[in-house]
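Exercise 7.
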Amino acid sequence: MVRLDESAHQPSAVEEALQGYAFKQAEQWDPAQASFQRALALEPEWGEVLIELGELYFKLNRSEEGLALWLRASVLTPEWGEDLRDPTQMEAAVDRWQKYTIFPLDYPDVLVKIAEALIGEHRFEEAMALWEHLFPLCPEAAFTHRRITAAMLFCGRVAFADRIFQARVDRNNARARERQLDRLGLRFLRDFSTHVGHIGLLDQYLKMDRLGLRAAARPVLVTGLKPVGNAAYLDCWRPHLPDMITDPATYLRLAPLVDELEDHTHGIMDRQGGQRISYNWGDFVQVLRQWDAEKRPPLLSLSEAQHARGQACLRQLGVPEGAWFVGLHIREDAWDKVRNASTQSYQLAIDTILKRGGWVIRMGDAAMTPLPPSPRVLDYALGPHKSDWMDVYLWATCRFFLGTQSGPVQVPPTFGLPCVLTNWAPPLAPLGYEQDLCIFKRYYSEREQRFLTFQELLSSPIGCISASAYLDTQGITLVDNTAEEINAVVLEMLDRLEGRPQSVNEAHQKAWREAYEPLGGTNGRLGRAFAEDHAYLLGFSSPA
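Solution. The predicted structure, written as tokens, is:
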């Protein structure tokens, strides 16, 4: 890369900044830093360059210097050419900001960067204090607050995330009352359609409705501008939720109304129309417990026409009429690896299902790692028969579903079918449905040279962390389930479904459930063999 010709003229701040951008794009960090510094020597209060150089410092692990530059940028006015010029004024402004006596809002994006940087530096209290000054001054900046919420969540700070989200919801509900919008008797569902797992949460939402646990407002689902996670599965809910708006133009017209009358996937509605936000899902556990206690049936079922169409497709796949199968989904994601698992570790369980006379149908998307060829094992995810409606048929008719913590395991229980949940992490998410079996990833503390118990995980942020990189900073190593552990819990489910006698150590189950009680509880059961082999996770010094 050639530098601007300095013999002709002294480069301007703009030329130095452009040169810095070019060097940064080429990942030439040292010359990029030098160019930005020269630009700032000529224009000390140029906010955009302060931001660029701050980002560069974070890349170079000089986070304190980067944060200081972002703090400077945050006190500038929007008119870059009319920034504060007096160095004493700038220093005084930064000093006041650091004492949280003022909080300028000229650059909301910069403020979000500062909050996210503080969270990345594990300075959660400072990030929360920053947000508490930010929210009263720009409560309508939903995207800004959503980003800070997400950053808190991925680092396991669920209570902070709840507070941020709750403030947004309370503000919107208050505005709706002020404008008398609450008299419309409508609530909008927007986040329930974007992912398969979110669509599955309609089960809990509508059961709240049927049980009289939420205000009697008419729910209207709007799909917005984002793709629907599975349109055929969303259609299954139309008998229970007939008001669905899928037209993008209509959504744009309704968007301001939706903002102030929205029910959220993480919100428990009360009878007065309030909404309590909780990311630990414990409240949903109570809803599903009450539903089961009243012996109510599943909300969803397939029609005769859907069964006929699905059976015809199964025959095309080579599955004979009357054969039973297990649905399989093993999460793979390049970004968030906490919930991922290795396909190879499921082979022993697959072999067991085949020996018992079943088939295995692997679900997912076309980017998944191919399964090794095997008779009666169908890699449906990578095949030509994959479709939204066939996904639904497989979820609704499998003998049970074998999966990891991802959206697909939310679907079979909405049709009343059980799941075997494996490599479950983070453990903050409880089991919603009583018929499910679960085994967990284990958390090994390098600092303490031991595995952490369920009670320790669920009473600390570690049990909530979704970002694998952040777990690394905490000295935590995740240990995936072994092939033998997965096979054992699959055998337990097969024996249960075949009516074979089973002995369960109720002391283990009781200890596991009690660990979740402060969060609202959990349903389902912990895998029997897993509990026996790892009784220390439940507080037992040895298997009881």
